[in-house]
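This part of the workshop introduces the protein records we will be handling. A record pairs a protein's sequence with a compact description of its fold. As an example, a complete record with its sequence and its C-alpha cells follows.

_____
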Amino acid sequence: ELSNEKMVEAHYNLAIVFFFYRQSDAIKEVNKLLKLNPEHLGAYSLRADAWAILGREDRALANWAKILDLDPEDTIAYSSRSMFYAERGFLYEAVKDLEKYLQLKPDSPAKKRTLGKLKAKLSKKRLNKK
C-alpha cells in the first residue's frame, strides 16, 4: 500500500498530465490530493490555473487567495494572479500583485519591466476616463 506522501505525489503527477488536455480531470486529481494534504501549495496553484483556463475566474481567484492565506510570501501566486488580472484588463489589481511580488523578490528585472508597462497602461486608462 502506498504511503500518504506517495499518494499525494501520484495525484499531483496525474493532475499535471491532465492539466494540458483535460483541466476538469486535473481538478479532480487535485481535489483528491487536497483531501490528503490540504496545505499543498502546488496543488492550489495548478487548480487555480485550470479554473482560469476553464473560464471560472471566481474559482481561480479563490485558489490563489488560499495559497496566500497559507503562505503570504508565495511569489508564484502573486505573479500568476497578476498575469491573470492583466489579461482581463484589471490593471490596478495586476499592479498591486506585481508590486507585492517585487517587495518579496526585488531583484527581478523582467518583473520590474512588466510592472512599468502595466503602470503605463493604467495611467493611460485613467487619462482616457477623464
In short: The first helix runs from residue 4 to 19.
